[in-house]
Amino acid sequence: DVPGKPPSNEQAVNHVQEHSSGATAPENLEPTLSITVVGASGDLAKKKIFPALFALYYEGCLPKNFTVFGYARTKMNDEELREIISRTLTCRIDKRENCDDKMEQFLNRCFYHSGMYDSEDDFAALDKKLKEKEAGKLPNRLFYLSIPPNVFVDVVRCASLRASSETGWTRVIVEKPFGRDSESSGELTRCFKQYLTEDQIFRIDHYLGKELVENLSVLRFSNLVFEPLWSRNYIRNVQFIFSEDFGTEGRGGYFDNYGIIRDIMQNHLLQILALFAMETPVSLDGEDIRNEKVKVLRSMRPIQLENVIVGQYKGHSKGGKSYPGYTDDPTVPKGSLTPTFAAAALFIDNARWDGVPFLMKAGKALHTKRAEIRVQFRHVPGNLYRKNFGTDLDKATNELVLRVQPDEAIYLKINNKVPGLGMRLDRSDLNLLYRARYTKEIPDAYERLLLDAIEGERRLFIRSDELDSAWALFTPLLKELEVQKIAPELYPYGSRGPVGAHYLAAKHNVRWG
Ligand code: NDP
Ligand code: BG6
């Protein structure tokens, strides 16, 4: 499959043969794709999934024959769903040529079915409606579970028993969280596998669909200049930073049961770390890449409590405006110890990375919104220009930054001679700013991931052994934090986070970038 291109009929038929329920596919039928968004009345569906589907349609990436079904308990008809979708199609496409026409065509392919998540009969009724649309074609079905995790298993059971494709493929995209710890995640996987094969499960981590994260492998493996430096020999430390300049507003109820370590570190940041640190895969095949990522995760040293600091934001007033603290949210229990900020030092005990601190920092309600990978290199041995940097040689080391968002960029901090007769050095950037270099807008992560799921490309989805390894790394730490009732260090809303993060970095000879 060529990413970015709609699958040909032949490819679709191949997928059918790989993943069908066993019935023989009539090979001369034209394929059709039915996408069911379960939880269609929810926030994620409106904000991300429908706009991404529309963007794929606009770009000509959806197959010729397709329909989109919304499914949720909320009572509404097709027109009402279309009305909701059209209001929220505020995606990157909406200022483009022919957008209105395309939107109308897209909306005409959208339908709604109201049902309970645990009712086989309701899914059988959905199946009937799907069949009407699929008549005379070879049906492939994609279910997107955009629902809270407590109903994941019910939906998988009902959908696979009563609404899976009889002759084509059936795939299920599952949103996070995949459990709260090793045990619950293992149980979820076990339940899923009663109804689905691993090949049918597409566990989404939308950070893997971000342009700069995808580019990480291209940067490493298709340029000569980076890979030779990519080890303990030249890299002093690596930082994975996630920060949001808003709190858990509106999602406090969900968040309090999970906290920032489960929400961001165990998945988004750890996935990036695995891609960053993996050995060269045998090929670009999804299984080869995921094999290498698992090896990294399995080589990681257990996380020590003394290498972690946790924080929670408190209310703060600034410029006549007041910002609420985390526990001011009525859906958050008073006295909650759930961290909204965490920083941790992790280590990979293998030959390439022995002794290199991998620092993670993730927080909500901080002073800025950004996601970055920062690679700090070692000092130049016997630097001839040492005296030009005074005592602060740290400032003289190179740093490679991949700014995942906002304003995607890759830049390398270098030392440079300030033009002139004297010999003065300063720090400059070799800068690849995406918006200056590329005119085409960057697709949303959900577009890439939906397209991959449609094409059966699993590279950017989490395999169950990856998930197990990720939980095996974080579960003991999460248990320790909970059993010991570690109180998070409070930090004001909109600040740079707890000072403890700086002590943690200093302990490992690191300065946050
Ligand atoms: P919502 O809380 O909006 O739930 C989606 C739909 O599920 C609701 O519209 C509702 O539909 C139904 N629902 C809500 N609560 C329950 C319940 N207790 N029992 C049964 N059904 C319920 O979730 P989101 O859309 O925000 O998120 C969906 C999934 O995606 C979740 O797993 C979430 O963790 C994950 N996610 C969300 C992100 C976001 O930005 N929102 C980001 C990343 C992941 P109805 O009542 O009509 O049946
Ligand atoms: C989600 C988290 O997975 O990612 C949210 O549950 C977070 O808490 C979101 O806000 C951030 O995603 P993005 O793409 O906006 O950086």
Question: How does this model look, in words?
Answer:
This protein is an alpha/beta fold and 513 residues long. It has 15 helices and 18 strands. The strands form three sheets. A nine-stranded mixed beta sheet has the order 16-15-14-13-7-12-11-8-18, sandwiched between helices. Residues 1-22 have low confidence and may be disordered. 6-O-phosphono-beta-D-glucopyranose binds next to loops. Residues 218-512 form the Glucose-6-phosphate dehydrogenase C-terminal domain. Keywords: Carbohydrate metabolism, Glucose metabolism, NADP, Oxidoreductase. GO terms for molecular function: glucose-6-phosphate dehydrogenase activity; NADP binding. InterPro entries: G6P_DH, G6P_DH_AS, G6P_DH_C, G6P_DH_NAD-bd, NAD(P)-bd_dom_sf.
Quick take:
InterPro entries: G6P_DH (IPR001282), G6P_DH_AS (IPR019796), G6P_DH_C (IPR022675), G6P_DH_NAD-bd (IPR022674), NAD(P)-bd_dom_sf (IPR036291). The protein is α/β, with parallel strands linked by helices.
Structural features:
513 residues; alpha/beta; nine-stranded mixed beta sheet; seven-stranded mixed beta sheet; 15 helices; 18 strands; 35% helix; 21% strand; disordered N terminus; binds NADPH dihydro-nicotinamide-adenine-dinucleotide phosphate; binds 6-O-phosphono-beta-D-glucopyranose; glucose metabolism; oxidoreductase; carbohydrate metabolism; G6P_DH; glucose-6-phosphate dehydrogenase activity
Write the layout of secondary structure elements.
Layout: H1 9-19, E1 31-38, H2 43-58, E2 66-72, H3 78-88, H4 99-107, E3 110-114, H5 120-134, E4 138-145, H6 152-162, E5 170-174, H7 182-195, E6 201-204, H8 211-221, E7 235-243, H9 252-256, H10 259-277, H11 286-298, E8 308-314, E9 316-318, E10 321-323, E11 341-346, E12 358-363, E13 370-377, E14 399-405, E15 409-417, E16 425-433, H12 434-437, H13 445-455, E17 461-462, H14 464-483, E18 489-492, H15 500-507
Parallel strand pairs: 1-2, 1-4, 2-3, 4-5, 5-6, 7-12, 8-18
Antiparallel strand pairs: 6-17, 7-13, 8-11, 9-10, 11-12, 13-14, 14-15, 15-16
Bound molecules: NADPH dihydro-nicotinamide-adenine-dinucleotide phosphate and 6-O-phosphono-beta-D-glucopyranose.
Residues 39, 41-45, 72-74, 117, 146-151, 175-177, 254 line the site of NADPH dihydro-nicotinamide-adenine-dinucleotide phosphate (NDP).
